Amino acid sequence: MFDLIFQGVQAWNQVGFFIGAVVCLGIGGLILGNSVYWRVHALRAQGTVIGVIANGGTYTPVYRYTLADGQSHVAKSDTGSSLVRGKETGRVVPLMISAHNPTQARAAGGYLLDLIGLVFALPGVLFGDIALTAYPITRMTWFMAAAMLLYLGERAWRTFIPKGQRLSIEDWKKLHNIGETTLDLSNVKPIETFVSAPEVAQARLQQTKSYRMIVPILAAVAVLLLGIGVYQSMKISRLETQGLRAQGQVVRMNSESRSSGGGYTYYPVVRFRTAANTTVEFKDSVGTNPPSHRTGDKVTVLYLPGDPQRQAIIDRGFVLNWAIPGVVFLFAAGLAMLCVTLRRQMKVAVV
To answer: Which of 238, 242, 223, 249 minimizes the C-alpha distance to 322?
Structure first.
């Protein structure tokens, strides 16, 4: 009975990782693909902010720009925010204009969407590798997959838009300004009509001060993460290049209370015999909840012959062994890109 429950939990986790991989890769791929498409196909021009469209506290800037043929056009940004800074009437902004819709544009030079896409896509790759390599594919896997798909299908059916409330294709195109060559300017108003000019200037000054405080902190954290990533990479590199592999067995699961959120994290304790015929027991550095192993499981151990007690891990394959330093480097790169973006915005703010 215990084996059946354990296999069910393991299969449920496996299917969950696989669905998470599909969702993350789908969202990340969509965002990155859209960003690449804009960078490759968009037209470039200098635009001037002529006003914003206000909707529930969100301000979407509207630009006037001139293409190489001398024709003047008006375009609405494809993104909006509650921030006032950067939307001042008359501000000149480098633009990317949709090649198929001259009324749609976005500010050029930002990498925030690319970063968001990577944040979704890279965990998707990791989740997929875990689902396919860390767990065995059994009949219980297919059973749990069918159960989860039925559950997700039922939830989707409950939230499905009733037929009478669905938008027609033409209404949907009109809502997203697809196929239109002109933009209705009746709702476009200067940002100063919603916020006074002194308030705009004060917001810019306050935002700049905040960035000046935040950027050094983010840079320091990025450097710290970079150091941790380098240390972890050197450790894994030594194990991969100089280490030996041996068969081990999980002798027990150590449960440790989480510092936040309550609950426990379970770490496998593994016993194995080295090439020098020495018995070594170590606690793996990766803990999970629910536990990823159970007592008696056979595992492959990767260890350094000179220090098998402290330099040993459960060998989960090349991708998963490098997952921890990879994730650390990802966060470090993300913080570095954020620092660059904030620095650019600080320079624009003083113009």
So the answer is: 238
* DSSP codes joined into one string, 92-121: EEEEEE-SS-TTEEEESS--HHHHHHHHHH
Q: Do 331 and 242 belong together in one domain?
A: yes
Q: Among the three residues 110, 141, 175, which one is the final residue of a domain in this structure?
A: 175
Domain that holds residue 242: 196-351
Answer for the pair 20, 130: CB distance below 8 angstroms, yes or no: no
Backbone φ and ψ for 141, nearest 5 degrees, come out as -60, -50
The Cα 348–Cα 191 span in angstroms is 17
The per-residue pLDDT string of the chain (351 residues; one tens digit each, 9 = 90 and over) reads 556 666 676 677 777 777 888 888 888 888 888 888 888 888 888 889 988 888 877 888 999 998 877 788 888 888 887 777 778 888 888 888 888 888 888 888 767 777 778 778 877 777 777 776 666 677 777 777 777 778 777 766 666 656 556 556 566 556 555 555 567 788 888 888 877 666 666 666 676 777 788 888 888 998 998 898 898 888 888 888 888 999 999 998 888 876 655 677 888 999 999 988 889 899 988 887 777 778 888 889 999 988 888 889 888 877 778 877 887 888 888 788 778 877 776 665 544
Question: Do 211 and 318 fall within a single domain?
Answer: yes
Instruction: Pick the closest to residue 272 from 239, 311, 241 (CA basis).
Output: 311
Residue 163: count other Cβ atoms within 10 Å of its Cβ: 6
Q: Is residue 232 a part of any domain in this protein?
A: yes
